[in-house]
Amino acid sequence: MKPDDSLAGFWLETRRLTEAGMLRRLSGAFAGFIASLGTTTPELLLASSVLSELEGRGHSCLLLTDLAAGPAALLGWSEEDWQALAGTCAPLPKNAKGWIARLCACEQVWQVGEFDYDQPLVLDGERLYLRRYWRDERLVAQAIRERAGAAREVDAQAARRWLDILFTSARKAEVPDWQKLACAIALRGSVAIITGGPGTGKTYTVARLLALLFAIAGEEAGRQRIALAAPTGKAAARLKQSIDKALSELADRVGAALPLRELTARMGAARTLHSLLGARPDTRAFAHHRGNPLDVDVLIVDEASMVHLEMMASLLDALPPSATLILLGDKDQLASVEAGAVLGDLCHDAQAGGYSDATLRFAFEASGEQIPEQYAGSGSALAQQTVMLRHSRRFGGPIGQLALAVNAGDVTRAGEVLRSGDPALRWFDHAHQHHVVQLAVDGYQPYLELLAEGATGEHDAWVRTVLQRFEAFRILCAVREGEWGVEGLNDAIGQRLDAAGLLRRGGEWYVGRPVMVTRNDYGTGVFNGDIGLTLADPDRPGSLRVYFLQGEEVRSVLATRLRHVETAFAMTVHKSQGSEFRHTVLVLPQDRGSILTRELVYTGITRASAEFTLFSPTSAALGEAILRRTHRTSGLRGMIEG
Ligand SMILES: Nc1ncnc2c1ncn2[C@@H]1O[C@H](COP(=O)(O)OP(=O)(O)OP(=O)(O)O)[C@@H](O)[C@H]1O
């Protein structure tokens, strides 16, 4: 890069912000890389560094109207800090049009529609992208549009006959029966989305959808290839377990009318998306892509809210056009850690419905269910293929009421439910760290007691029980650092358990240490997010192994072979997605209010199946979090609808 005095102020300010921890080193370096590619201007550097910084915060692009208005809030900076950086590049354009004019003149920027020579920045309307994200959004939008629009011939009468068999006529919990409607609608296109909160029956429904596809496929049924997948190993194992259970109950009920055990037997294990696509070490590329597509007819993907933009693009690229994709997930949960809020974007119309006359007619013919008038409209082709399940079957109690209030942004109601005195809910504000630690000592006691007693009977069965007990309780944090973060709490909990004689922490590895895998490791077969417990190896005295529970199955790896792990008495809410604990404790930090959002609190609450405890620095902090929505800038919705 050529030294340029006019840019000196920008670089100085960039360094100050980096040292203050407000700007990633990468964002400054990215601006430097852009500058190195050709003639540069201060505003190009400013836009590049902001774009890169926003990418690190999950946004897939930078809206130029936001840049013109000043993106301090998006960046989580004060207005003064933004002005200090922007001031080094003044005078700046006052609106998006002005920004477009300036950026178009830069050789590092490709304006969509103009001659493309692989510039790293892409300007699509008023959105500035890193090329990779623009390409991914384009791919996802195009694939989803084509799939949603590809209407299939459906024998509506046969579908209805089978749906009446598969869904019992016992008193319906909701009218219309959205589960039945979801099955009917999924028959029509090569993509369908079934969204809903915890316990609304997404897995229950998809098991019936599989049975329905099997039933109406006739002679083809025996050849149908079905794949189950999820973003994490744990979610995949849970999906398989729930589908097997639902199909086995169905098989008992429908009997010889449909050989469902044959379907279960042919389904195989559920896999992580990484493994399904054929991830390879040291490369982002997968073995499967449009040149080597997946060998499937029906692909079910659970916990789709955790699927980030790049992964969704890879998945759609690898899926043959003839295959049906069914996405299951809760659109209101936290978006993926990486850039994009794909499920949220795809489900934009889910609440309102927006069903066309043709959809209303088809849905009635194929399911016998009438979609109420209020859900009629003129939604996109994807909206016609999306169904929201609205009634929770195992989440109606106080935890469910709390989740509903939080999701609706009703701070008063959330406070009332939390203070209702119901033993399933507890709320501590103005607490100290030692209160959380004490709760952790009590919560983890059951598995530690079992460890102290030692193995009795068959070793695997004992390990399973220890793991199940450990999985019944968890501390969830909003942040990693500090005394209210994962790191501080893991340390404090470990120390206290040690002091109480419940653990003996000799070094890095010790009996009873819970760990979370932080990177996929194909050598040992463990994946990012997997959680295991360190226990003595019964066959090699003095040696430690980490045991993982996948569904009902126990598997283990020599502790010293696991290189990317961290202690997991406490974990982030992000990492807890796809898991459920009998008692979940959510710890909100004392400062860093800006990262506390409604989606984070909702995701934390919905991890609890029987008991939920909240620690918040003040009562006001909870209200502020509930009112703060996660916002991720993306152009995906516009591309799908456009
Ligand atoms: N129509 C129904 N009739 C009877 N039981 C149902 C029905 N729908 C769901 N259930 C039951 O409700 C429970 C929750 O269903 P399911 O696990 O499918 O929900 P989910 O939306 O997949 O939940 P999660 O998001 O937690 O995975 C299960 O025990 C299931 O058997």
TrEMBL record:
Gene Ontology biological-process entries: double-strand break repair via homologous recombination
Domain of life: Bacteria
The protein's enzyme class: isomerase
InterPro entries assigned: AAA+_ATPase, Coronavir_polyprotein_1ab, P-loop_NTPase, RecD, RecD_N, RecD_N_sf, UvrD-like_helicase_C
Segments forming domain AAA+ ATPase: 188-515
Binding-site list for ATP: 196-203
Reactions catalysed, as given in the entry: ATP + H2O = ADP + phosphate + H(+)
CDD domains in UniProt: DEXSc_RecD-like, SF1_C_RecD
Keywords from the named record: ATP-binding, DNA damage, DNA repair, DNA-binding, Exonuclease, Helicase, Hydrolase, Isomerase, Nuclease, Nucleotide-binding
Residues forming coiled coils: none
GO cellular component terms attached to this protein's record: exodeoxyribonuclease V complex
Record PANTHER family: DNA HELICASE B, DNA2/NAM7 HELICASE FAMILY MEMBER
Note from the entry: In the RecBCD complex, RecB has a slow 3'-5' helicase, an exonuclease activity and loads RecA onto ssDNA, RecD has a fast 5'-3' helicase activity, while RecC stimulates the ATPase and processivity of the RecB helicase and contributes to recognition of the Chi site.
Subunit structure, as described in the record: Heterotrimer of RecB, RecC and RecD. All subunits contribute to DNA-binding.
Protein's recorded name: RecBCD enzyme subunit RecD
Organism per entry: Massilia horti
